[in-house]
Write a structure and sequence with these properties.
The structure holds two protein chains of two kinds.
Chain A lengths: L1 H13 L5 H17 L7 H20 L5 H6 L6 E2 L8 H10 L2 H12 L4 H8 L3 H27 L1
Helix pairs in contact in A: 1-2, 1-3, 2-3, 3-7, 5-8, 6-8, 7-8
Chain B lengths: L8 H11 L2 E2 L6 H36 L33 H18 L21 H10 L1
Classes of the chains: A mainly alpha, B mainly alpha.
Chain lengths: 157, 148
């Protein structure tokens, strides 16, 4: 079922904008909407991510927290990733590095790596040209790589 | 060598390494989602019933209040030969001596005069009455009315 496959990834995506509770509500709302659809969407995976995105943006606008939400996310205590000893990258470091990215780049990374969407699908979801999405993704990966390396250097020092 | 997304091997490696990280569990239970979906569908069904019943109420109210009023046709006394400006001189009967007919004519004329005044009668022309009776004049009528 879609819920088992995507709830955690959608939650991670929703956390990009919202606090824990609001993100949970947004994801739940997306699944409820999916169940209420008389016709199944053509691309349910992309549909779910787009619905969560719309829901998150609506919530942000409604609460007029756009100015503050950056600091709200920065203050989130929950790590976005589960920590396992066999992970190649430290979960906490990955979260911190992702938080340093501009929001648009972070969104593309979340959708590409954890949403497992193609760049074309991402372009449709975020409503930007494919080339823009591609360049955002490349820039984000370069930034992550650079910040991971500097983080490793700091730790070894 | 670049892959379909235009990434070099180093970037692909980084992408794969990041992909090994599992997102924190959503903290949502499937039952919770199903319950919310059920609630939403019940709410929607209720709304449909509410919509249908309120539409029926509106229709009922409209049909009650916009019913056309019954047309009242007033049947008043008719004066033969009367036009809109008043009453013409008492029309002649067919010339027979039916006194009942003459009396009816008299009553009609009297009623018209009471309603609209003497002006309805032409001053100069005497009314034509059945044969054998003196013609009805305004003065006679005036006397007659004052006696009643």
């Amino acid at each position: 079922m879609w819920y088992d496959s995507y709830s955690d990834r959608l939650m991670l995506y929703a956390r990009n904008w919202l606090g824990e509770d609001a993100a949970r509500d947004a994801v739940q709302g997306a699944f409820v909407r999916l169940m209420r659809q008389s016709l199944s969407p053509r691309d349910p995976q992309a549909w779910l991510f787009r619905t969560v995105r719309n829901e998150a943006i609506t919530r942000l606008r409604r609460r007029e927290r756009q100015r503050r939400h950056g600091s709200e996310i920065a203050m989130q205590r929950i790590c976005w990733f589960e920590s396992h000893p066999e992970d190649l990258i430290d979960a906490k470091t990955a979260h911190e590095v992702l938080m340093t990215l501009p929001e648009a780049q972070r969104e593309v990374v979340l959708l590409r790596i954890w949403g497992q969407l193609s760049l074309k699908q991402i372009a449709r979801i975020v409503g930007s040209p494919l080339t823009t999405v591609h360049s955002r993704y490349k820039a984000a990966l370069a930034a992550i790589k650079e910040r991971m390396q500097s983080s490793c250097r700091t730790r070894t020092d | 060598m670049q892959n379909e997304n235009g990434l070099n091997p180093l970037e692909q490696e980084l992408e794969a390494a990041l992909g090994t990280l599992a997102p924190t569990q959503a903290g949502l239970s499937r039952d919770q989602v199903m319950f919310a979906a059920g609630q939403a569908s019940v709410r929607r069904r209720n709304r449909a019933w509410q919509g249908v019943s309120s539409a029926l109420v509106v229709l009922l109210l409209v049909s009650v209040f916009s019913r056309p009023e019954p047309t009242v046709i007033e049947v008043g006394p008719e004066i033969a030969g009367a036009d809109s400006s008043g009453v013409s001189p008492v029309p002649a009967t067919s010339g027979d001596d039916d006194r009942g007919q003459a009396f009816k004519q008299y009553v009609r004329t009297r009623r018209a005069v009471l309603e609209r005044g003497f002006d309805v009668l032409p001053a100069s022309e005497p009314t034509r009455t059945p044969v054998g009776e003196p013609p009805l004049k305004r003065e006679d009528l005036s006397d007659l009315l004052s006696s009643t």
